């Protein structure tokens, strides 16, 4: 029996991932739930376990490929059926290399199909030059489509005889972009040495004090998986200077993204053209491209509008001050602001159910549960873990869960399912010093609350001017489902619950 391995659901707003590395090879035996392949998204890294025991009979997506949710990754055969094909593959594997050495025929490199709706791609970067020696499956060129970026491997070993499409050209699926002379060898005069073992290593370049210019990029470490290798290549980083946080000290895509460019590299003019010593052109990372696309999709899909108010935080701060030590002693966690805001939002959501709903085609889905997403900033990007059934949890339970989410988000240990299914989101730009902002919806949710920094400001109270700790609140909402009256009512209820926390206890 054949069991398919597919890309699991990766999060509410995550639609694709990059194959970081395969932990098993074709023909190897696997046990049920044994990790097979590691996927990297713009939020987390996740290992896909084997859905059944048997032999890994095929791998459909290679390291470095970008795959969509539910895409086929490979297949597993029951051990009895798979043992023969695996053995057959082992005995036949050396044959192509032997034939290649003697044939000398020309092999065309074509643009592979990369999706049902993808008909063309742009040539990103050639990794080899005409006359260079290439190995079977060695990356030749990167292609970029409107959905993903991918490397095209060499279909044979030999010499790159001809390049028929230049960087920046748009080519159709199936078009011939290069020709390889199979089994041929490159001479010293053909320029192969410039891409071969005589290249200076990143450490040698740094030691010489020379700037890293176009055509002299540090060669990525062989130990890097494709996702971080691409980032290292794009930004001209030295892999030896990057601290790996992955398993066994392995460098992840997030490690490469947050690594600083060396001063000598930062001063160097970047491709595709020299902008002078005061400027630098750097290709946008795939992470930033994904973030940009999803934020724009949210703006294009929803009729997004933001309403504002301010809240006097005096009562909450006095309550925290009064019970801070007792709360921490009993529950083992400090009493923060987020539990107050989570409870205040749940109370308001019950009064204005439209904010807790979502649109599905021509239907409105009203949620009778209150799962609050809490935006957490990390070095690898913004993640939004979800507090399930926040209406059923105490403030201590909410504080403990938020603290746990924060720790695991920064270490990259959050699970995919912990970031799915939220009905409303709270984001706190105040921790970075933001005074006012307009948060963007976390689709398909219909509302998001933005918190900001607390600032001592003069306000009028009972005919007198007093100084109070004030915070601006911003509530963005989808005007297709939430009317202005509902949005304003929601934000006013949040304000009232925070300025008089006893309302939460009395359910007023």
Automatic annotation (TrEMBL):
Establish whether keyword Acyltransferase is in the entry: yes
Q: Which metal ions or organic cofactors does this protein require, according to UniProt?
A: (R)-lipoate
**Segments forming domain Lipoyl-binding:** 2-77, 106-181
Give the matching CDD domains: lipoyl_domain
Q: Where does this protein act, in terms of pathway?
A: Amino-acid degradation; L-lysine degradation via saccharopine pathway; glutaryl-CoA from L-lysine: step 6/6
- Provide this UniProt record's keywords sorted from A to Z: Acyltransferase, Lipoyl, Transferase, Tricarboxylic acid cycle
**One GO molecular-function annotation for this sequence?**
dihydrolipoyllysine-residue succinyltransferase activity
> This chain belongs to which protein, by name?
Dihydrolipoyllysine-residue succinyltransferase component of 2-oxoglutarate dehydrogenase complex
């Amino acid at each position: 029996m054949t069991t398919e391995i597919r890309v699991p659901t990766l999060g509410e707003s995550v639609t694709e991932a990059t194959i970081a590395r395969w932990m098993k090879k074709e023909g190897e035996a696997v046990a049920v739930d044994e990790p097979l392949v590691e996927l990297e998204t713009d939020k987390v890294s996740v290992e896909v376990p084997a859905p059944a025991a048997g032999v890994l009979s095929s791998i459909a997506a290679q390291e470095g490929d970008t795959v969509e949710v539910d895409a086929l990754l490979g297949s597993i055969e029951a051990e009895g059926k798979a043992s023969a094909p695996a053995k057959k593959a082992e005995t036949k594997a050396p044959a192509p290399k032997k034939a290649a050495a003697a044939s000398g025929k020309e092999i065309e490199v074509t643009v592979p199909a990369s999706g049902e709706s993808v008909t063309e791609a742009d040539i990103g970067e050639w990794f080899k030059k005409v006359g260079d020696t290439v190995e079977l499956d060695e990356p030749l060129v990167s292609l970029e489509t409107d959905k993903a970026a991918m490397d095209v491997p060499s279909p044979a070993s030999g010499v790159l005889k001809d390049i028929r499409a230049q960087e920046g050209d748009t080519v159709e699926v199936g078009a011939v972009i290069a020709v390889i002379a199979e089994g041929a060898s490159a001479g010293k005069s053909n320029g192969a040495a410039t891409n071969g073992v005589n290249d200076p290593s990143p450490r040698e370049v740094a030691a010489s004090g020379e700037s890293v210019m176009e055509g002299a990029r540090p060669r990525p470490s062989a130990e890097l998986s494709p996702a971080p290798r691409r980032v290292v290549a794009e930004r001209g980083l030295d892999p030896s200077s990057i601290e790996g946080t992955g398993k066994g000290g392995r460098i992840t895509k997030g490690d490469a993204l947050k690594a600083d460019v060396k001063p000598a590299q930062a001063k160097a003019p970047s491709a595709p053209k020299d902008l002078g010593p005061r400027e630098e052109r750097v290709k946008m990372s795939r992470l930033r491209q994904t973030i940009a696309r999803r934020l724009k999709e949210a703006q294009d899909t929803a009729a997004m509008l933001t309403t504002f108010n301010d809240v006097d935080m005096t009562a909450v701060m006095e309550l925290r001050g009064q019970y801070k030590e007792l709360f921490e002693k009993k529950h083992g966690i400090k009493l923060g602001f987020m539990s107050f805001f989570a409870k205040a939002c749940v109370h308001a959501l019950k009064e204005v159910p439209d904010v807790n709903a979502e649109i599905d085609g021509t239907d409105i889905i009203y949620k009778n549960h209150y799962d609050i997403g809490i935006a957490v900033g990390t070095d690898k990007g913004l993640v939004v873990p979800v507090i399930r059934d926040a209406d059923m949890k105490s403030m201590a339970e909410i504080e403990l869960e938020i603290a746990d989410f924060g720790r695991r988000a920064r270490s990259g240990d959050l699970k995919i399912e912990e970031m799915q299914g939220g009905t409303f989101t709270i984001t706190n730009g105040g921790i970075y010093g933001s005074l006012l902002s307009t948060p963007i919806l976390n689709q398909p949710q219909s509302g998001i609350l933005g918190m900001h920094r607390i600032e001592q400001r003069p306000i009028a109270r009972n005919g007198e001017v007093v100084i109070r700790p004030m915070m601006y609140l911003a509530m963005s909402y989808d005007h297709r489902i939430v009317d202005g009256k509902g949005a304003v009512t929601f934000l006013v209820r949040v304000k009232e619950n925070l300025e008089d926390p006893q309302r939460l206890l009395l359910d007023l």
